[in-house]
Amino acid sequence: MKIHKAWWLGIRDIQIMPAPRHRPQSRRPQWIIILVFLVSVSLIGAYVYGSRHYSACYFFSSSSCISFKQWLPPSPARVFTDDEIAARVVIRDILNMHPMQSKNPKIAFMFLTPGSLPFEKLWEKFFLGHEDRFSIYIHASREKPKHVSPLFIDRDIHSKKVAWGKISMVDAEKRLLANALKDAENQHFVLLSDSCVPIHDFDYVYNYLMDANVSFIDCFEDPGPHGTGRYSNHMLPEIEKKDWRKGAQWFTMKRQHALLVMADSLYYLKFKHFCKPGMEGRNCYADEHYLPTLFHMVDPSGIANWSVTHVDWSEGKWHPKAYRAQDVTFELLRNITSIDVSFHVTSNEKKVLQQRPCLWNGVKRPCYLFARKFYPETLDKMMRYISNYTI
User: Fold this and answer.
1) pTM, whole model, 2 decimals?
2) Membrane-spanning residues where (predicted)?
C-alpha cells in the first residue's frame, strides 16, 4: 500500500483517474505463512547463536545444511608490516630450533637488586656442593654490592639504574639474560630479587626446572583497570587488546625462550614507548605486561602461566605481604611448599578469583620453588629452617 500511495502522489498531470476495481481478497494458504515464520526464526537463531545451536539450509534440504557463519564473507586478513614479517620469521626459527646439547647443563641464577644481597649466606648454603650446576649473575642498580659469600664475588655485571614500573626494569632483565647467555652451558634462567629465598634444596629445584617442558612465566587475563585497562591503542597493529596479558615479573625460562626475548625488538619497542607510568592518564608497568603478552602471542603452550616464586597478595595492597622475623615459622614454610594451585584475582569490581592446578609435565605438583618478600631480619631463622622444611 505504501508503494501505491507514493506512485499516486507522484502523478501530477492526470486530473481524473478511474476508480479502482475491488478484487476479492485472495486467501493465501496458512502453510505458507507458517513456513515463512519458521524460516525467519531459523535465520535469526542462526545469526544470534551461530553454528552451536542452529543451521541454515539451502532449499531446506538436510543434505545441504551449512552454518550461518559460512554464508558470510571471510574476514579480510590483516597485512603484516615488514617489521612484523621479519620478527615472526626469527621467532618461528628460534622456537623450532633443537635445544643446544650441553655436557654440563647449568641453571643461571640472576639477581636483580638495588645493592647488597641480604640473603647471600642462605643462598650459599643452598648452592654448596653443586658448584658445577649453577651460575650466578648480579645486577645492582644503585650501589656496588658488598659480598659476604665467596660464591658471589666477581659475579656482578655492568648495571644501570632501574626505576620501579618503568622500561628500565625490563632492560635490566634483558641485560642479565644477555650476560647469562654468553655461557653455553646455561640452559635455564631464573630471575630473583634481593628479598627472595629458596624453599627447597638445590637438587629438587634443579630437577624441577631442567626436566620441565615449559618455561615458568606468569600470565593471565585481567579485564580490570590494572589489566586491560592499561592497554593503549598505540600498541596496534602489532599487539591487539585481546592479546594483552598480565603477570609477575619473576620468571624462570628455558634457553630457547631467553634467546627469543633477546631477539625481540618489535614488541619491546611498543612497550618502551606506550607502556609507562602516566601514559594517557593511566599507569602502565612494562615489567608486569611485556613478557606475559609476548609469550601469550608467540608461544602460549610453551609457558606454565604461573611463576615458581611465591608471593602473598592477600592484603590487597599495592605491594605484597612482607615477612618479618616473627612471621617466619615452620608452619608458614610448610604451607607455601604444599600449595599446588595458582591463584589470580582480577582488578575489576567483581574481583574474580582465577585458579588452576600447577601441572608439571601434565602432573599436578607443588607450584613454588622460591618465595618473597622476606626482610633481612629473617635470615637467622631461615638459616635454621632451610635444612628441615625442604621437601
Assistant:
1) 0.80
2) 31-50
